[in-house]
């Protein structure tokens, strides 16, 4: 059965705001890409960061990593102390799209984000438009994260969403695969132009 889409769900980092730890550590290592890559691949890794997104406290994360690499304590602490420097800013075309979709009144607009609970208040301060969603699910607050099914079920239950009438947009393919398995329509985000094309193909009006 084909349902009419009535809900659009955005990931935040990588879709509406440009977040990369490299932005901070390029400053720290004076643009030495090899040092940046080594540090982020071996010490403050994406896997380590994902645990904070899933609810682990920053203090616990730092203590574990510093115990493992005591000689890099200062660099490890920088990750969250200077976390705001990992953003280049909003992705303007996609924020304009989000605002157009919201203003159209045709859809409920939600966010489903992997984000440390301890950094969410700062995120709202940095990006005030995060307040403009009809609702947001923040992984760190829920102590589970994408791509685990629990967080998608939590989203649908909390906001009474029928996944078959919802489009989920994320730059992480694993998260899209998980959503599609739960009967969401999924768009694996690659660029603003591709996203517009995909929405038009699904007859999304705004």
Describe what you observe in this structure.
The strands form two sheets. The chain has a five-stranded parallel beta sheet with strand order 5-4-1-6-7, with helices on both faces. Strands 2-3 form a two-stranded antiparallel sheet. The chain has two domains: 121 residues, HAD superfamily/HAD-like (Rossmann fold), CATH 3.40.50; 68 residues, no CATH class. The model has no long low-confidence stretch (mean pLDDT 97). The protein is built from eleven helices and seven strands. The protein is α/β, with parallel strands linked by helices and 206 residues long. The chain starts with 6 loop residues before the first strand and ends in a 5-residue tail after the last helix. Helix 1 crosses helix 2 and helix 4 packs antiparallel against helix 5.
Class from helix and strand fractions: alpha/beta
* Number of helical regions: 11
Task: Return the average pLDDT rounded to an integer.
Answer: 97
Helix content: 40-55%
Distance between the termini: 24 Å
Give the C-level CATH assignment of the largest domain. Answer: Alpha Beta
* CATH homologous superfamily caption of the largest domain: HAD superfamily/HAD-like
Query: Which architecture of the largest domain would the CATH scheme give at its second level?
Result: 3-Layer(aba) Sandwich
Low-confidence stretches: none
Percent of residues in β-strands:
5-15%
Order of helices and strands: EEHHHHHEHEHEHHEHEH
Instruction: Compute the CA-based radius of gyration.
Output: 18 Å
Strand order of the largest sheet: 5-4-1-6-7
- The tally of strands reads 7
Taken together, the total number of domains comes to 2
Rough outline = globular
Q: Could you give a short account of the major beta sheet? A: 5 strands, parallel
Give me the CATH fold name of the largest domain: Rossmann fold
């Amino acid at each position: 059965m084909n349902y009419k889409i009535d809900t659009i769900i955005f990931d935040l980092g990588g879709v509406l705001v440009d977040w990369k730890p490299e932005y901070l550590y390029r400053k720290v290592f004076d643009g030495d890409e090899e040092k940046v890559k080594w540090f982020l691949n071996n010490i403050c890794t994406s896997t380590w960061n994902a645990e904070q997104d899933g609810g682990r406290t920053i203090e616990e994360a730092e203590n574990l990593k510093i115990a493992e690499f005591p000689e890099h304590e200062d660099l490890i602490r920088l990750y969250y102390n200077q976390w705001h420097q990992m953003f280049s800013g909003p992705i303007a075309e996609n924020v304009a799209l989000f605002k157009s979709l919201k203003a159209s009144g045709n859809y409920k607009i939600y966010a489903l984000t992997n984000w440390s609970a301890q950094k969410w208040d700062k995120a709202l301060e940095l990006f005030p438009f995060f307040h403009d969603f009809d609702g947001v699910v923040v992984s760190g607050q829920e102590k589970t994260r994408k791509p685990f099914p629990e967080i998608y079920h939590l989203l649908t239950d909390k906001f009474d969403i029928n996944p078959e009438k919802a489009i989920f947009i994320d730059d992480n393919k694993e998260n899209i695969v998980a959503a599609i398995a739960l009967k969401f329509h999924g768009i694996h985000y690659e660029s603003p132009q591709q996203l517009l094309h995909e929405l038009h193909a699904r007859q999304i009006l705004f």
